[in-house]
Design a protein that fits this description.
The chain is mainly α. It has twelve helices and no strands.
């Protein structure tokens, strides 16, 4: 009997060690991939700034971007950044309020059976391929916008932004609803005891108590919108320009990288190398959103017992 217990104990110890090393290897692999991406982006960006046609001052100070045109080339990153931010702002203005409203309904108003049906149905949107959203923007959203205002052309920032807003809607709704449901029932009961209505409790108690999780879901959704590729490549257009007009044709950073890797530019040319510099800027912007989200979670996190 004692031999069996010792054997079982040894087997359990070896199993624990195996699980521990498996988790360590998974964590180390994630960190390794992140550092590998950083090294590649830094190396290729350094090579990009080594070309005679490029200077750091022009890259961060110029407002003209036309690396693929004949003649004199210009590498000012701001038109691509402006197009990316315009599409992201449109997507955020559409998805954030609708997603938060849906989350409040699912958390505070919907019955359990209704929530069990609506939430999975909403999360199905997250599983649709992004290229489908791109074709949906071209074939459905753009004709509707053109019928409303003829100034909307075949490619425009509004169509791409609305499609991305629909795509990130499940992220906002699901994460915000989880944050709202994590608020203790005692806070709701205390507000009801003070004479608050259902709407008062939802808006003035539950939402502020879950604010850190809601803001984190907003930042995560916006990071997803900034990095979206196929929707903007299909629906936003290919003209890099600084504009705030939603009906204008724009080009985002990810759409430019798709254009480069289609094979129109030589692999050893400055145009090809510029895609890595653009990717480095995109990585920096996304990382900034992640760091801001972590700060907000740490600074405003509410802990309940």
């Amino acid at each position: 009997m004692s031999f069996g217990r010792a054997r079982s104990r040894r087997w359990r110890d070896w199993s624990e060690r195996g699980i521990r090393w498996s988790l360590f290897c998974a964590s180390f692999f994630s960190v390794f991939v992140t550092f590998a991406i950083l090294v590649i982006l830094a190396k290729e960006s350094f090579l990009f700034f080594g070309f005679e046609e490029v200077s750091i001052g022009e890259f961060f100070g110029s407002t003209e971007w036309n690396p693929l045109l004949g003649g004199e080339k210009h590498f000012g990153i701001w038109p691509l950044v402006c197009g990316t931010m315009l599409v992201t702002v449109i997507a955020a203005c559409f998805a954030l309020p609708i997603g938060l409203t849906a989350a409040v309904y699912l958390s505070e108003y919907a019955r359990p059976t209704t929530r069990a049906i609506l939430k999975p149905a909403l999360e199905v949107l997250a599983g649709i391929p992004t290229v489908v959203y791109g074709f949906f923007a071209l074939t459905a959203i753009t004709p509707i916008l053109h019928s409303i205002a003829p100034r909307f052309g075949n490619y425009n920032a509004m169509s791409a932004g609305l499609a991305i807003g629909i795509m990130i809607l499940p992220i906002v709704c699901s994460l915000s609803e989880d944050a709202l449901r994590s608020v203790p029932r005692s806070l709701r009961d205390g507000a009801y005891a003070l004479g608050g209505t259902k709407f008062d409790v939802s808006v003035k108690v539950v939402v502020p108590a879950a604010l850190s999780g809601i803001v984190a879901s907003f930042l995560l959704a916006m990071s997803r919108a900034i990095g979206e590729t196929m929707v903007v490549a299909l629906a936003a257009g290919g003209i890099a320009q600084m504009t705030a007009e939603p009906w204008a044709e724009v080009q985002t950073m990810t759409a430019y990288m798709v254009q480069i890797f289609l094979g129109d530019a030589p692999a050893n040319g400055v145009e090809y190398a510029s895609s890595y510099a653009v990717a480095a800027v995109l990585f920096t912007i996304t990382l900034s959103f992640t760091l801001v989200g972590r700060y907000i979670l740490k600074r405003f996190r509410e802990e309940y017992e």
